[in-house]
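Students often ask why inverse folding is considered easier than folding. One informal answer: many sequences map to the same fold, so there is more than one right answer. In these notes we will look at a single instance of the problem. The structure comes first.
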C-alpha cells in the first residue's frame, strides 16, 4: 500500500478515521490509533473515547442484568405473599405473575451467558 498523499512512498499505517494509507510524514500517532496529521486527530480521539466508554458500559451490564432478575424474583415473591393473605384470586394472580417472572429471569440469565460468550470470542 502506498501513502495517499505521496504515491511514491510506502504507507506504514492507516488513518483510523478515513482508512487512507499514511507514510511517516503524513501520520500522527495518537497512542491508540493513527490519524491523518492536522486533519483527523480530533475524530480519532473521539472514536477512542467512545470505545473506552463502551468498555465501561459493558463492564456494568452484568450487574444490571443481575439486579433486574433479582427485582423480578422479589416482585414475584411479594405478589404471591400478598395474594395468599388477601384472597384466592390474588393468590392465583400472584402465582401466575411469579411464574412469568421466573421464566423471564431464566431467559435473561441464558441470554447473559450467551452475551458474555459472544463478546469474549
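Output (designed amino acids):
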Amino acid at each position: 500500500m502506498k501513502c495517499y498523499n505521496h504515491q511514491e512512498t510506502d504507507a506504514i499505517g492507516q488513518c483510523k478515521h478515513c482508512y487512507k494509507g499514511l507514510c511517516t510524514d503524513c501520520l500522527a500517532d495518537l497512542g491508540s490509533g493513527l490519524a491523518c496529521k492536522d486533519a483527523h486527530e480530533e475524530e480519532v480521539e473521539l472514536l477512542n473515547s467512545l470505545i473506552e466508554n463502551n468498555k465501561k458500559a459493558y463492564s456494568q451490564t452484568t450487574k444490571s442484568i443481575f439486579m433486574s432478575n433479582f427485582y423480578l424474583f422479589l416482585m414475584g415473591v411479594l405478589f404471591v405473599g400478598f395474594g395468599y393473605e388477601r384472597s384466592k384470586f390474588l393468590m392465583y394472580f400472584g402465582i401466575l405473575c411469579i411464574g412469568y417472572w421466573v421464566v423471564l429471569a431464566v431467559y435473561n440469565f441464558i441470554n447473559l451467558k450467551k452475551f458474555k460468550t459472544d463478546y469474549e470470542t
